[in-house]
Amino acid sequence: MIAITIREVVALIEILEHAHACITELSDANKETLARASGSQLIPALYARAGFASIRGFRNVPLLTDEIGLLEAAVINLESYRGNEVVLCSGYHLLDHFANRSRNSCPLCYVHGILTFTDEVEDTASGAATPSLT
Fold first, then answer.
1. 116 with 110: CB under 8 angstroms?
2. What is the dihedral sign for C-alpha 71, 50, 128, 119?
3. What is the model's pLDDT at position 37?
4. Crossing angle, helix 65-80 and helix 6-26, to 10 degrees?
5. Inter-residue contact 128 to 53 (CB < 8 Å)
6. How many whole angstroms separate alpha carbon 17 and alpha carbon 20?
7. Residue 108 forms beta bridges with which residues?
8. pLDDT digit string (tens) for 89-100?
């Protein structure tokens, strides 16, 4: 797992959306195959993580190692399906950055079903991450 910035999340989502659009246009594969090939099934989780991080004032969003593989698959498929060169270059740029980034050993947790770093949750000024109904 690595920590990525909100700006990197935005770029990643743009790449995955473009890959999905290209593959959908040029392939007759089913929706599940298209989602796997483009990495688009990751988009809702990325939006949730980025939104949660932004609202709570966190600096970083976790990206799991397996999820980096989805970006790699999207980039490979963009090459195959003649995706936009700017988006393709952005994908390679992110892959290079992610490969050179040290792996983070910070523990992760789920807050309201959203993956986040445990240490950032504990550092919030608003108190416990889990709301109390009492």
1. yes
2. positive
3. 83
4. 40
5. no
6. 5
7. 117
8. 999 999 999 998
Whole-angstrom Cα distance, residue 70 to residue 43?
11
Return all residues near 60 (Cβ < 8 A) that are at least 6 apart: 3, 4, 5, 53, 117, 120
pLDDT tens-digit profile of 28-67?
A: 888 888 888 889 999 999 999 999 999 999 889 999 989 9
* Cα 17 to Cα 129: distance, rounded to the nearest angstrom: 31
Give the DSSP H/E element, type plus range, for residue 108: strand 108-111
Exposure class string for 17-52: b at 16+ Cβ within 10 A, else e: bbbbbbbbeeeeeeeeebbebbbbebbebbebbbeb
Neighbours of 81 (CB within 10 A): 18
For residue 62 the two structure tokens come to 């976790």
